[in-house]
Design brief:
Helix content is about 45%, strand content about 5%. The model has no long low-confidence stretch (mean pLDDT about 95). Helix 4 links the parallel strand 4 and strand 5. The longest helix has 24 residues. The protein is globular. A five-stranded parallel beta sheet has the order 3-2-1-4-5, with helices on both faces. With about 475 residues, it is α/β, with parallel strands linked by helices. It is built from 20 helices and five strands. Helix 5 crosses helix 11 and helix 13 crosses helix 14. Flavin-adenine dinucleotide binds next to helix 9, helix 11, helix 14 and helix 16.
Length: about 475
């Protein structure tokens, strides 16, 4: 590498361990500028929603602290990253820029262009892996095309070299010696104020690298031992809750992979099922990178002819957790209160929006994007299309989740529902997923008046199911 100051540009890799770009800078023993830019040119596929802005604020605070422990200062700037990096090069005489790769479509385009511009100006740019276990363009079917189906993707993934070992944390960074202008994080106004809706999110999460490792430790010390069976039951807390930490790169999939492998005592099938879920994330990126515009376009364009409903009132009832279906409402309220929702319930609420309410999956994707702390350009779009039936390897449209049976199967006693819909706390188990069937006396005893203290169902399940199947049939006839 040329001798001269180095810029390490942090993006969705807000950690100091297993950070290949940072480690490379440390090894050079050159003056280093650690930079984060709040991207004002982000497009709709990459700009942060409200919940993620909250997370970003705290994650950057944590990153700045960790960097201080190895002698580095985090420089914060806001604007066009490309322009800011060029200005910073002029200001500091930096000779190289290092970053870890990211894979949203617009990010790839912008990074490729910036790399070429800087290289033309004799600035060395080196990019590293870190966000994914294998490059999403690397895996190909026998005929050389990208995978569309998860199971063969997993098989091919399993046949690749084992993911590399995580890289160590650098001991010391030689910080740039002159003073540099840096924004105050508070001036970015990432935190909500009027109203401050983030209280429940703050109670649930500790953004930052330390918080990520705590989560992983807690998971490996217990829930992983029951992951295969327990992961489907939302009241059990048997999943890792690592998703927002992974999305912000506070922990890398290499670190998770290595720690799971090292966990000798864990029953192998539990580990295997967990690894497979981590690889679903890789598969989502494989789809995003190889099929572009997954956020806006139906992967299966037959769905362009689907007769969606506008259904503004229904959309609002869904967003607010007021559909009258307890498992759906509990999920939507968990999302609003904590910025996260259990995977099983994500599938149920997404199916309900798309199939029971006939609302375009893109509306649901947008709401999740704004409210999830783990909103991810690949996993969110791929999962919504999966549920809609419009995606690669999608669940068939005509498989319609019954929210009553799903509730009875995965939240039998109603523990999860009662946590987020406390107005139903005294409804007996028999009726907890269908309170409208409870005799008047039971409702009265439980203090529930349907339509007042808890909504009547916004649609009747059987009618909605038939309507969805008819809409699907109509689409088929028109394609
Ligand atoms: P665990 O069960 O502990 O799994 C470990 C990790 O594997 C997760 O952190 C995640 O990175 C990955 N993973 C697990 N399941 C999936 C999956 N089905 N697809 C892709 N990756 C997976 N996940 C996101 O990270 N961001 C999203 O924006 C997102 N949107 C979703 C939208 C819908 C409609 C659905 C059905 C799923 C969505 N998922 C999304 C996938 C999944 O629900 C979450 O990754 C999971 O609930 C996160 O919880 P966890 O960390 O406890 O997962």
């Amino acid at each position: 590498m040329p001798s001269g100051p180095i810029i390490v540009w942090f993006r969705n890799d807000l950690r100091i361990s297993d950070n290949a770009a940072l480690l490379k800078a440390a090894q050079q023993e050159q003056e280093t500028i650690c930079l984060y830019v709040f991207d004002e040119d982000a497009d709709e596929t990459t700009e942060y929603g409200g919940a993620q802005k909250w997370w970003l604020h705290h994650s950057l605070t944590a990153l700045a602290k960790s960097l201080e422990t190895i002698g580095a200062k985090l420089i914060l700037r806001r604007g066009s990253p490309e322009q800011i990096i060029k200005e910073l090069i002029d200001e500091t005489g930096a000779k190289s820029v290092l970053w870890n790769r990211r894979y949203a479509t617009s990010h790839i385009k912008r990074d490729t262009k910036l790399k070429s511009d800087l290289t033309d100006s004799d600035i060395e740019v080196i990019s590293f892996d870190g966000a994914l276990l294998h490059e999403p363009t690397k895996l190909r079917t026998g005929s050389g095309s990208p995978y569309k189906v998860y199971t063969p993707f997993w098989r091919a993934f399993s046949g690749m070299d084992e993911p590399r070992d995580p890289a160590p944390k650098p001991d010391k960074i030689v910080s740039y010696s002159k003073s540099l202008k840096s924004d105050s994080l508070d001036d970015w106004s990432l935190l909500p104020t009027k109203p401050d809706w983030a209280g429940g999110i703050a109670d649930e999460w500790t953004p930052g690298e330390e918080g990520a490792w705590e989560r992983l430790g807690d998971f490996l010390n217990g829930p992983i031992n029951d992951y295969k069976e327990g992961r489907d039951f939302p009241a059990q807390n048997d999943t890792s809750k690592l998703s927002p930490h992974l999305t912000f790169g506070e922990i890398s999939p290499y670190q998770i992979w290595a720690e799971v492998n090292a966990k000798q005592a864990t029953h192998t099938p539990n580990k295997e099922v967990f690894r497979k879920e981590v690889v679903w994330r890789e598969f989502s990126y494989h789809l995003l990178v190889n099929f572009e515009d997954l956020k806006n376009k139906n992967y299966n364009d037959d769905f362009d002819a689907f007769p969606w409903n506008d259904g503004k009132k229904h959309l609002e009832a869904w967003q607010q957790g007021q559909t009258g279906y307890p498992i759906v409402d509990a999920g939507m309220r968990q999302l609003w209160q904590t910025g996260w929702m259990h995977n099983r319930v994500r599938m149920i609420v997404a199916s309900f929006l798309i199939k029971h309410l006939l609302i375009d999956w893109r509306e649901g994707e947008k709401w999740f994007w704004d409210t999830l702390v783990d909103a991810d350009p690949a996993s969110n779009t791929a999962s919504w299309q999966w549920v809609a039936g419009s995606g690669a390897d999608a669940s068939p449209y005509f498989r319609i989740f019954n929210p009553i049976l799903q509730g009875e199967k995965f939240d039998k006693s109603g523990e999860y529902v009662k946590l987020y819909c406390p107005e139903l706390r005294d409804i007996p188990e028999k009726y907890i997923h269908k309170p409208w069937e409870a005799p008047e006396k039971i409702l009265e005893k439980a203090g529930v008046t349907l339509g007042e203290t808890y909504p009547e169902p916004v649609v009747d399940h059987k009618t909605a199911r038939e309507r969805a199947l008819a809409a699907y049939q109509k689409m088929k006839e028109n394609t």
